Amino acid sequence: MRYLFGIRSDSGAGAIRGIAQEHVLAQKYEKGSFDFLELDTKFIGLCGEAGIDLNDEKVKKERNTLASFGEVLDKNFKYKNLESYQQKVEVQLDDLPIPIIGYIDFLFKDTIVDLKTTVRMPSKPTEAQMRQMALYSMAYPKKKVDLFFASPKMHKKFNLKNLSLHKKQLQTVAFSIQRLLSLSEDKHYIASLFFPNVDSWMWSYKAKQDASQIWSLK
Q: Are 82 and 115 in contact (CB under 8 A)?
């Protein structure tokens, strides 16, 4: 839907919470302090842009946790020498006509850090997260790579030292997509090879309506 048809799904309140935290944390490196008022203002503004109702109970719950997340980050996110925030990277593989593109949350002098805010602290990163970090490592092979998780009560940092397997996986994924797209220049034909599971919690009402433009869901 997104890449072939240009249909973007709305951001949920949870995703917006993460974006707002990253924004204020990046500002801390300029201002010298974590701005909790700006955190709430940014969250409200992003919800407005996404058409999210601030009176929705789930949204209220997310908003109420903003300060707790912020306190954990303000106290424990202690990296130094920030070079850039949301740094775009492109990695070009041999025999692939276009680069793989990603955006690094925080690029420090010696470390790449991706921030994940979550209400449930994981015991380990997912395979998808490892592939994401493998891409960043390919762009900056001399830098350390960290995944930093923050919940309203605690934080956990994973220093990823061996990503060779996930770099290979990333290449396999890229060439799999290339083979899929080579089947036809008709995006509707490509879409017909799949059928969405709209029962999943990941599908918003609007996303289901958008999907109806591509697949026969009724």
A: no
